[in-house]
Amino acid sequence: MGLLDKIKKSIELKHPSPSISLIEKTENRILELTKKSELDPNDSKILLELYACYVETSNSEKKIECLEKLSFLTPGDFYPLQQLADVYLNELDDNVKAKFYQNKANNIKNNF
Question: Which InterPro entries match (predicted)?
């Protein structure tokens, strides 16, 4: 195990697990926001809130889904693309997709 792996493991061990009540509250919020999103699929604020809930529940697949929709709805915003790069790099270990999304985010930043 390399030094970075040891540091990462140390940080992971110190991060407290969420309580069951917090998880239930977040999952109820996800249900509520999902219904709102179905009624108004172009509301980026709802999608951003959903994304935050999926961050809390560590649901990579749903985070990606929200971020892809956000990047489509807000093409001038680099944040969803930057977060997609982060998910692919740090959670899914997919350097190719991470680089793809990072380059797209950088293009937006540079053209701003």
Answer: TPR-like_helical_dom_sf
